[in-house]
Amino acid sequence: MAIKENPGDQKTRTSLLLVISSGLCLIFYVLGAWHRSGPGKGDSIAIAIAEKADCTTDLPDLNVETHHDMSASIDESETRNFEPCADNFTDYTPCQDQRRAMTFPRGNMVYRERHCPPDEEKIYCLIPAPKGYVAPFQWPKSRDYAAYVNVPYKSLTVEKAIQNWVQFQGNVFRFPGGGTQFPKGADNYIDQLSSVVPISDGTVRTVLDTGCGVASLGAYLLGRNVLTMSFAPRDSHEAQVQFALERGVPAVIGVLGSIKLPYPSRAFDMAHCSRCLIPWGENGGMYLMEVDRVLRPGGYWVLSGPPINWRTNYEAWERTKEDLGEEQRKIEETAKLLCWEKVTEIAEIGIWRKRINADSCSLRKDQSRVSMCSSADSDDVWYKEMEPCITRYPEVNSLDEVAGGELLQFPKRLNSVPPRIASGSISGFTAESFQQYNKLWQKHVTEYKRVNKLLDSGRYRNIMDMNAGLGGFAAAIESPKLWVMNVVPTISDISTLGVIYERGLIGIYHDWCEAFSTYPRTYDLIHADGVFSLYQGKCKMEDILLEMDRILRPEGAVIFRDNFNILIKVNKMVNGMRWKTKMTDHEDGSHMSEKILYAVKQYWVGGSESA
Ligand SMILES: *[C@@H]1O[C@H](CO)[C@@H](O)[C@H](O)[C@H]1NC(C)=O
Where would you tag: which of 90, 119, 450, 532 has the fewest CB atoms within 10 A of its CB? Predict the structure, then answer.
């Protein structure tokens, strides 16, 4: 890697600075260096962008010779090299492994829920990319195309052929924007919804799509500035969620089974199911009660497909009138118990609305018919069993007050004080400190962008923040070119995920001592702020780092922000995982014990020994 010619005055720079600059260039050069070029593949796009990266970056404040003892990094022990796993591990999802799943009961989809390997079955090798792997297409092309080599499963094109989900064309998949329930395309379907649900003005910003297929709804809602958290189980339709993420659309592996959904209460502005195969009428209405928990007061529930409009469709669906009629009756009954208002039915779409507070529901006053949840904390959901009970609304003082606080339309919602903070329910945060917190993250992200020029380019689309706090990183980096999965670790002292949703961002609870509910190679950029301080003494550092390597795309990047002594250890370990790294000071100077470690995962694939 040659450094570009600099103007004369730059010669006065210290050689140290040159070393640092070229070091940084080297990392970002790695982004493009291993790409296999070829027409029609995503990699050529990635190369074009990588070439635009400015390697003459001026980095006057950067000083790796910190006041800390750098000799700590010259550890005598050898770096442990992690070897590639066998090639059949390319799509390994540790907590949704087919063979482990089959040892669990099928009833209530328990076998499709998270079942993680115990410590003695954890693997300590690197998940290989399939041979020929290319960088995915850039958004918005990725919405419609994915490279076959990256997701080599044709089963969906066959099984769902008539339903127009995916087509196979040469070496790429094409997504025509169809879905089982949207024969005229997802955009047309969204237009139908918009005639009833306020989708276009920022009132509906966060959507939960249960049983999402290849997430075409989420893909097209992005065009309306609406963020969708889509989930589907890892099942016989190979890799639906993998397709979604390959397309650059947020999704996780998940199922509505016996465990509560990993989202806080009052999070989503809309929940959606189109032919999602969830038995809404069964188990005493428990699944609808769980949807009600995560739905914001005033939020919408959309159900399209069976049993809606069964009188017209029962023959096409090959089901009896009695069966479908009974299913709808049960759904309507539970909706009444939940005190949802039936808004309308248009064609095969049924739309309900959750009332804005408990007082506006007379039935709720007679609580003898409904069983209210006793749990004091409706956000305490990680591995907690789902129960057939109704989550209480926060109290209100008048009939027209929105329980839990009214939200502004997006984007105003992003940086205004979220109701959970205004009400003082997030200990340690006030309206004022929230604003300071946001300023701090704007400063951090400005610094990240200064070092990694690709952050703003669209090169990184699927972004994960492993320890998202109040969503400061995601809010500061917010752009239509990318989306952020904001993870709130279950071991955090305070549960901040509700705030993240109130800002119009999406996220999920997770315990980083276990594998994340996603396929390998699904994120372009991972931000790890304080993760290794938080998990010290909780599980092995390599467990978390190997999981990061699994979910990171080849040539994807990581930004660690942590204590210097911790980053030294992280640095050593990831160097044995084929990552290139560079440590820099905090933007406030070298006296800060917090440092930043930039890393890039090298390109390598299975079946070959090295890069
Ligand atoms: C890969 O194959 C090996 C040997 O047959 C087997 O032990 C292992 O469980 C397989 N792994 C996966 C993820 O299928």
Answer: 119
